[in-house]
Design brief:
Layout lengths: L2 H14 L4 H15 L3 H10 L10 H11 L5 H10 L8 H6 L2 E2 L13 H10 L4 E4 L14 H18 L4 E9 L10 H4 L4 E5 L8 H13 L5 E2 L21 H10 L3 E5 L9 H10 L3 E4 L11 H10 L13 H8 L5
Parallel strand pairs: 1-2, 2-3, 3-4, 4-5, 5-6, 6-7
Helix pairs in contact: 1-2, 1-4, 1-5, 10-11, 11-12
Length: about 350
């Protein structure tokens, strides 16, 4: 087995299990280190002890590499694969099989943990037809949001990757753009118009009063470039960042605006978000909204979080046909209003 593939696959399974970041990074770092070494030389270094003394190669990663070099599936990887055979969530299996892609993910261009290429490889391994890359916008400095110049550079890289992989999966250009306090979007209209997917989200001042938050969200929803309203309430229900209550807003007005402006309500699949809450999914259904089940993945293994979103959609009675991420790419592009591809 290729040792680099083994290390990266281990990192994938650990991310899927929500393992501590430092643990995941140990395997990603080891993969990057040995990825620069020709196969024959790597075998020599493993045989004469140099590999074990290499900075960034620990006991566990060394064992994985040597077992892979010996033609075995490393024991640690085999154990992770066995654990990974169990579903993350139950009740959404039929819908999960119909989900073709994901309109919300992050890379190391903003606050994600890996490259666009590794995210694309994971999406391919999961059988996705399309995967949107939606890094953050400039005002979210804590997340290394993309300036117009950096976003423009990223678009070129995504085009190159698409050409190199024959569009398997099709990478969609995008952004998770902040809805600013005045309801405008945190990127130039000209640049937003170049993107395939615009996910608009509120990230700051989540405890604003109901009227203020409603006006802010309505502004973002009514912007003609917005396709998806991301993690609607901003709540956190578990995880290392602690908990956070949902923001307060007039949900009936917000979802009516989504339906009127053909903006999908995101069912955010991250286990710490579970956003929107069940009652708001019900209100969005009554309002006639479309939905987008997305992972909001910040690492390759998290792309499998679609399982959580599918289970919540089924539990709340969301019809398959109203979930845009069940649509084939041609239909999705028609809804997004793009002619790219």
């Amino acid at each position: 087995m290729n040792p680099v593939d083994a290390l990266n696959e281990i990192a994938f399974w650990l991310e899927r299990e929500l393992a501590p970041t430092f643990k995941v990074q140990a395997f990603r770092r080891a993969a990057a280190i040995i990825g620069e070494v020709p196969a024959d030389e790597l075998a020599e270094r493993a045989g004469d002890g140099r590999l074990k003394r290499t900075k960034g190669i620990g006991d566990r990663t060394y064992t994985v590499i040597t077992q892979a070099l010996g033609g075995e599936v490393p024991e640690y990887l085999a154990d992770l694969r066995a654990r990974g055979a169990n579903p993350l969530a139950e009740g959404g299996e039929a819908l999960l099989a119909k989900l073709r892609g994901d309109l919300h993910s992050h890379t190391d261009w903003s606050d994600g943990g890996t490259s666009i290429e590794l995210m694309a490889q994971a999406a391919r391994a999961l059988g996705r037809e399309y995967q949107a890359i939606t890094d953050h916008s400039p005002s979210l400095r804590v997340a290394n949001g993309l300036s117009p110049e950096r976003l423009t550079e990223q678009l070129g890289i995504i085009d190159e990757l698409d050409a190199a992989t024959d569009g398997s999966p099709q990478l969609l250009t995008g952004i998770e753009v902040d809805i600013l306090e005045d309801g405008t979007l945190d990127q130039t209209p000209e640049l937003l118009a170049r993107l395939d997917v615009v996910v608009a989200s509120v990230h700051s001042k989540l405890r604003s009063d109901r009227a203020t938050m409603t006006r802010r969200m309505l502004g973002g929803i009514r912007d003609p470039q917005t396709n998806v309203l991301g993690h609607v309430t901003g709540r956190l229900v578990q995880g290392g960042r602690g908990t956070r209550p949902p923001s307060e807003f007039d949900a009936e007005r917000v979802f009516a605006a989504c339906a009127e402006n053909d903006v999908a309500v995101e069912i955010n699949s991250r286990p710490e978000r579970q956003d929107p809450p069940d009652d708001l999914i019900g209100l969005a259904l009554e309002a006639g909204c479309l939905f987008s089940i997305d992972t909001d993945a910040h690492a390759p293994g998290q792309l499998d979080f679609l399982q959580y979103g599918a289970a919540r959609a089924v539990a709340n009675g969301v019809p398959d046909e109203r979930i845009v991420t069940t649509w084939p790419l041609e239909k999705l592009r028609g809804w997004l209003g793009t002619t790219k591809g």
